[in-house]
Amino acid sequence: MKKLLNTLFVTTQGAYLCHEGEAVLVRVERETKLRLPVHTLGGIVCFGQVSCSPPLMSLCSERGVAISFLSEQGRFLARVEGRVSGNVLLRREQYRRADSADGRLDLARTFVLAKIANARLVLLRAGRDHGDKPGMECMDGAARRLGVLLDAARREKDVAALKGWRAMRPIPISGPSIPCLRRRRRISFSGYEAGGHHWIM
User: Fold this and answer.
1) Who's near 191: CB < 8 A, 6+ residues apart?
2) d(CA 182, CA 31)
3) Which of 2, 10, 136, 149 has the fewest CB atoms nearer than 10 Å to its CB?
4) pLDDT by residue (tens digit) across 152-178?
């Protein structure tokens, strides 16, 4: 099972990142504001005038922690990453499938089926949770129509036709039922500092 690690976002202008042993330190005006074990991080994102020490970059590259640099507005600038190991056999198989008509068809069908199935699942969930509310009849109809599209996609033999399904006519859903599709999700931040300077998500 893949372990999901945290991402450190540093937005304090003038912050300096370094390391002390196996810990990542965030310093502002020579004062340590945050200390985190490097093994708990999957990535570090620096916004604006944020700098990193070369030893920290070396440590992060060895531990598989990518460091990304963005402008204050969030525009991507650069990324520091360690050595990447490739799989030659995997690449060869990818090229074979790209050159094979049957391989391209299988991939395109899988992508389209997944998109339709996910959309249908959202509608079915909304129908179960809010079936007694007005306007939900069209939600059930839309889910049934997506089921028909799933069957049609499984039988489709033309790659170009499957690609064209992105531009197919949208399935109408009435206005009163749209709020039922929104699911409220509480997002918690651990390690959040006052002022909104550092997040560990």
Assistant:
1) 6, 34, 36, 198, 199, 200
2) 43
3) 2
4) 888 888 888 877 765 555 555 544 445
